[in-house]
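To assess whether the prediction recovers the assembly geometry, we first specified each molecular entity separately, as shown.
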Amino acid sequence: MTTAATKAGGRTAKTKPATMAQALGRALRDSMAEDPTVHVLGEDVGTLGGVFRITDGLAKEFGDDRCTDTPLAEAGILGAAVGMAMYGLRPVVEMQFDAFAYPAFEQLISHVAKMRNRTGGAMPLPITVRVPYGGGIGGVEHHSDSSEAYYMATPGLHVVTPATVDDAYGLLRASIASDDPVVFLEPKRLYWSKADWSPEAPAAVEPIGRAVVRRPGRSATLITYGPSLPVCMEAAEAAVAEGWDLEVVDLRSLVPFDDETVAASVRRTGRAVVVHESPGFGGPGGEIAARITERCFHHLEAPVLRVAGFDIPYPPPMLERHHLPGVDRVLDAVARLQWEADS
Amino acid sequence: MTVQELPGAAAYRPTPPPAWKPITDPAPLLPDPEPYRVLGTDAVADVDPELLLRLHAELVRGRRYNTQATALTKQGRLAVYPSSTGQEACEIAAALVLEERDWLFPSYRDTLAAVARGLDPVEALTLLRGDRHTGYDPREHRIAPLCTPLATQLPHAVGLAHAARLKGDDVVALAMVGDGGTSEGDFHEALNFAAVWKAPVVFLVQNNGFAISVPLAKQTAAPSLAHKAVGYGMPGRLVDGNDAAAVHQVLSEAVARARRGEGPTLVEAVTYRMEAHTNADDATRYRVDSEVEAWRAHDPVQLLERELTGRGLLDDEGIERAREAAERMAAALRDRMNADPELAPMDLFTHVYAEQTSQLREQAAALRAELDAEQDHEHSAEESR
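The predicted structure of the complete assembly is given in tokenized form:
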């Protein structure tokens, strides 16, 4: 986003290890400091600082009216945010967990996503809905859903998910600044991932909707986002030993979808695997594979494969490692990309 | 730092055993045992005759608006019309008690309230004609889009009123919902938020007896819908929804209370849906004519007319003048609705996002090509004739 980009411009900043959680909190703080219309509301976001402590310190710095502990009712929270946005505020809603966001679905689908459209552009709703999502943290039932497919199937919403500390800051700033509603999916298991980062001069971040090549390669493209990025990066490193030079594309934004970056990569490599935690059937991978096929058919050496979560309700934590796509599953998929045809 | 010094802990009180104790005496929150009435009672002496005459003119106009809109469905000029015939007292009063700076949150049955507030009736009806979801700028008129999903507009009203209060603006939101809507989760959440936040909101429930076909007895076991207020810690008021003076008074008091910063009020107006749910519904499948006829004798327009003529405030000539004004409104509405609305298919892509995505640009180009091909086809068909 421009703000972050400008701040970063040419400045040499001191960096130190920071977690994604800290970068997200800093993004909220900076947005609130810069724009008095930004209000944070949700369950436990005030005094406690959120169950993941993302909003820690905001109520103290900006007061209860800017960072508000609400009653425990997700439809009410998002519905109230709609009214606040109608009056000119810029609400940032925290949903406590992926599966606890479902009561707010009607507000999200019927009002948040559609208000710009149903008012002929007169009343857009600049609401950011932050949703911690995905598994891998040992959470018991209803704490580990990958709900992105529901959101990306709804026109009118942007669906954004960071995978790095830099992006966590930049994309959240950009989402809050956006005049469109954004479902901001935070990969829970990356909350405590660290990177060298400077809160005073965060790295430049492109506007919402641009994917990025995290690792250039020539053999095949891994297309992923959020919690599966580290898995793909690790798989790409391991693949070197097998003689594969894998490119890794981090989508960052599921909506808008960056066809350009994805198609350019696949045209270069001729092979593609989509990797995500969400169940495969009806999941993002199907849409992405179809888009690649429509655009890159004559460049493809093999069918586009998907590595996804199983088509099962999210398993109990002691079994989740069997469900989540890991490095081996990614490498197995890469091995099935019809390499023998090359020889 | 102790817990008491933490930010946001102002509402926290350490609670000794054995249990949390309610701090609110429910008695002042309870609604009257019978719906409050003004017309035909001593209370009417306190009502400004000018207000009664204004209400009468608006009710006559409102009734005519309802019959005209229903007629437009039969002529194919409206896709559907959920009539508020029989409920005009609620619709009109809701519009009249608000100041210009206040906000109205109507449901799909409340186009009349929007029109009574000053909205162009054609703009109010585009949703039901089917050419535009919302035919007006909500911020310009401070009328939220007509809300079709039940009760979902109520938390919006709470959020808006809350935001206005945070900004220090003197703005009240009045949100309208039906008896069926009170069963929805959003009704509960909105009332709870409003009470906790002391938001300047008035909730007007028009209890018209039916949620499409389902009677109130299958909807709730509450003593009255107004009683539900008590559970949230706000006052509930029960009013005769066909008594325009009573509805106006009760809503005015609720608005004034909200304006004073004393928080929300739930008003249940007991009324009756004289028509079917919409023109597409058949009410004979679920209710008896005798009930409808009994309510016809309690018609809001007639109740008011009887009061005014009985007290010599209105004569036949005055009634005729009100009817003629309503007729002129109806004729103008009919004429304007008989013109085909202008449709702009390419606008389908204009207001999905602030900036069109590349995918929407591609799809817009595809539709453009289809429209051009249609036009070419029509041209060549004309030439060959």
